[in-house]
Amino acid sequence: MAYTFPQPAIALPPSITFGSIKLLTKPTAFLEYSKVQSVGESGVSNVLVVFLNGLIAPQSFWLPVMALVLRHLKLGDSSIDGGASRPQMLAYDRYGQGRTIDRDPSDEGKEEGYGHDTLDVVRDLHQLISQTREDSDDQPKRIMFVANSIGCAIARLYAQHHPGTVAGMLFLDSIMANTDFVSIFPDPDSPDFDPGSLPQDVTPEMLHETRKKFREVFHPSVKNPEGLDRRNLATLLPDADKPSLGQGFAGRAPFVIVVGHDPEWFAKESLRGSMETPISISMNYTNPTWHHYNEGLTKLTSPEKASGPIIARNCGHFIQRDDPTLVAELAFRMLGMLAKDS
């Protein structure tokens, strides 16, 4: 099932190409991808930038970002070899998502909606990278992830399972992988619940309704169109600040930039959306919990390699949709860091 949102009018250069691929490990299904070939022999030519989707926003959301990064590189920057090099870039739709119509072959015979989990996605991603990367024997690609929502969790799990490969991560409003999205809010039915502790503009009735809606829509047990099982995600990633990503490419700690949504913008969007979450609920519970989680993500690497949390002004959860210019600028900044760190 594909989700569509208004996209900025940004012309796509011919260097962004599109294709379909069958993984050697799953030869009965196609994955749809978009790609940019690397250019040059220095600078960032040995970087592979991989864009990772959330559950809703497909790879098409990354295309304006890719185009703007290419525009930055064409203009040139002294930190990236005068614009004489560019990284390989890759975006794709997972099975059952966006332009990828085929379902995950490994789901066959399993309960519908619970066929594969994030570790399966990591294995697929590793295979996809191995089949599309432009490595040479003397210059392996450094992986840089640009990820949104659950894509951030996938990036972290990839780094854990493939140490020594990831050089940078740009997290855009990461999923709070260790929560059930219900316990964020106090439970009015709990024996130790104290109504007097509530903010003036929050009532027990509001909490009841919010917890009910979040359980029905966001709880890890809720099925999604691509059939990605999230029920074990909190077990796989129980903490925001660990395990460390210290074993990055060539044993160096990776660069990490953490970006969070605009709290007020997000609260207004949540009120207008189908959930109709009261602004006071978002401002008193969802936003502070999310910001605290983002603060933890900055501790996944060494302090001198971490930036953030940066607040993406006038952006909701899909930061790459709401402000592709910001995302491209941050990605370009990280490429500059990688060029200096090579």
The fraction of residues assigned to DSSP E strands is 15-25%
Shape designation: globular
Q: Can you tell me the residue ranges where pLDDT is under 50 for at least 5 consecutive residues? A: 1-5
CATH architecture, by name, is 3-Layer(aba) Sandwich
Task: Outline the structure in words.
The protein is α/β, with parallel strands linked by helices. The chain has one domain (17-178, 237-340): Rossmann fold, CATH 3.40.50.1820. The protein is built from nine helices and ten strands. The protein has an eight-stranded mixed sheet with strand order 1-2-4-3-6-7-9-10, with helices on both faces. Strands 5-8 form a two-stranded parallel sheet. Strand 3 (47-52), helix 1 (63-75) and strand 4 (88-93) form a beta-alpha-beta unit. Residues 1-5 have low confidence and may be disordered.
In short:
The protein is α/β, with parallel strands linked by helices.
Question: Can you tag this structure with a few keywords?
Answer:
342 residues, alpha/beta, two-stranded parallel sheet, 9 helices, 10 strands, globular, disordered N terminus, AB_hydrolase_fold, AB hydrolase-1 domain-containing protein
List the helices and strands and how they pair.
Blueprint: E1 17-23, E2 26-36, E3 47-52, H1 63-75, E4 88-93, E5 116-117, H2 118-132, E6 142-148, H3 150-161, E7 166-172, H4 204-217, E8 228-229, H5 233-236, E9 255-261, H6 263-272, H7 279-297, E10 306-312, H8 319-322, H9 324-340
